Amino acid sequence: MTQQAHVNVQDRAIVIGVGLKSEPLSEIKENLLELEELVTAAGGEVVGSLIQVLPQWNPSTLIGTGKVEEIAEMVRDSHATVVVVDHQLSGVQQRNLAQVTKVRVIDRNQLILDIFAQRAQTFEGKLQVELAQLLDQMPRMVGAWLESLSRQGGGIGTRGPGETALENDRRRIRERVAIIKKKLEGVRKNRAQHRQSRRRHEIPSFALIGYTNSGKSSILNRLTGAQVMAKNQVFATLDPTTRKIFLPDGPPAVVTDTVGFIRKLPTQLIEAFKATLEESSEADVLLHVVDLSSPNMERQIEVVEALIKEFNWSDKKIIHVYNKCDVAPLERQFRVKHYPRVFVSALTGQGMEQLKKLMANTVSEMQTDVQLYFPRTEEYKIFDLGREATILRKETATEGTVCYTQLTPNLMSRWKDYLVK
Ligand SMILES: Nc1nc2c(ncn2[C@@H]2O[C@H](COP(=O)(O)OP(=O)(O)OP(=O)(O)O)[C@@H](O)[C@H]2O)c(=O)[nH]1
Ligand SMILES: [Mg+2]
User: Fold this and answer.
1) How many Å apart are CA 206 and CA 182, to the nearest integer?
2) Distance between CA atoms of residues 396 and 378, nearest Å
């Protein structure tokens, strides 16, 4: 069962910003601008926008009834084909709003899920998106179902045929959810095996994380010569890509580029994208990419930091990579507070060598300087050592060779028999 897209190419959208009186208006406005970007990313065109600040939410329409009428009028005047609300809508609210405006009404979550559905390329990505959509759909259906009950007077014995259909739908969805989860489990195991083999070889790993459109893929391409699609668009990347990188004087490492973050990331997406997020969870070091040129930089950092906490990554080593230096006013560099940090431009290549050095330093911090002695009969093992660690220097000693190298704790225990110091 695949979901129909809620926003289609050439959709004319009216976007509605909403918030409670307790929220700062500037934030409601920022969120709305972002919602407009999301509409564009989904292929739609924004033809109107409107903000309402309320003392409290209206359970049947979310916003005030007067405002709903105003929206209906805007829809007529601008020939809009869809209304997008910057807040989660219940099934009931969604239906009521659609009835008055006479067009499709969707919320931020559905819009983000739509974009993900358009972008998903891999088998795993598609499964994850479908799972997120189903998880998003279920509570909406329950709402509609309860409402149909109450309209019929409610209670046992008043079950109509429509309701049976709904129950059937719900059962089908639950079954589909179970099937997808099982398939994803298979993919996840496979991926975990790959990671384990990397770990066995003790290859240090980095994960690029950050707000969507901050330049993660561009940085991966710069660092590793990869050719991941980088685009001026939110959520250009969905599926993770891992590439090898050669750091100055360091052992080979890998860098993974994954899906970006956004404020109000749908919880169903987080749940469904567990496997993708695990790629970052397993990384030794996080490269938090920040768009230094964005007027919303501080807010975006906050959003990413909140997610880092939510995913329990707070104990990881984090390097802050301030990107788009080439277009950011210089004084912005003085406003950043995080260490270790580096200012780069994936576009011009500026700062990339510093970034690599910083990455190499971080790797070597995880390692200890050691000397290993190989008696002549075992000198052939130096070749193996060279594959797992960088040999800084070799010295011929009596009856063998001494190698100067740096080892991680795991490698240390593997080579302990040859340890001199
Ligand atoms: N001026 C400038 N633009 C950049 C720089 N780095 C990336 N961009 C542009 O920013 C946009 C987003 O870049 P991506 O690399 O796709 O960003 P991302 O973080 O991977 O985005 P998602 O995958 O959508 O989350 C693209 O249009 C890039 O060309 C930079 O250093 N300077
Ligand atoms: Mg990307």
Assistant:
1) 28
2) 13
Burial classification of residue 232, based on how many CB atoms lie within 10 Å of its CB (0-12 exposed, 13-18 middle, 19 or more buried): exposed
The tens digit of pLDDT for each residue in 59-70 reads: 999 999 999 999
Pairwise CA distance, residues 285 & 363, whole Å: 9
What DSSP letter does each residue of 177-220 carry, written as one string?
HHHHHHHHHHHHHHHHHHHHHHHHTT--EEEEEEBTTSSHHHHH
The token pair that represents 338 in the structure block: 């995080």
Return the DSSP state at 329. -
By most ligand atoms within 8 Å of CB, the mutation choice from 34, 115, 231, 237 for ligand 1 is: 231
Pick from 243, 319, 252: nearest CA to 279: 243
Q: Rounded CA gap, 140 and 142, in Å? A: 5
Express each pLDDT in 215-263 by its tens digit: 999 999 999 998 888 888 888 888 889 999 988 877 788 999 999 999 9
The single residue listed with the structure tokens 């208006």 is 25
Alpha helices in 225-292 (DSSP H): 267-272, 274-281
Residue 224 in tokens:
């590793």
CB 172 within 8 A of CB 1: yes
Helix (H, G, I), strand (E, B) or coil at 46: strand
Predicted TM-score of the model (pTM): 0.82
pLDDT tens column, 130-171: 999 999 888 887 666 666 655 555 444 555 556 677 778 888
Exposed, middle or buried by CB within 10 Å (0-12, 13-18, 19+), for 113?
buried
User: Which residue's entry shows tokens 């709904």?
Assistant: 166
The amino acid at 45: E
- Ligand nearest to the CA of residue 219, numbered in listed order: 1
- Rounded Cα distance between 400 and 6, Å, is 70
Task: Find all residues with CB under 8 Å of 190, minimum gap 6, and list them.
Answer: none
CA-CA distance, 321 to 286, in Å (whole number)?
Answer: 10
CA of 361 from ligand 1 middle (Å) equals 26
Query: Scanning the structure block, which residue is given the tokens 């409670």?
Result: 20
Q: Give nearest CA residue, ligand 1 atom 21.
A: 213
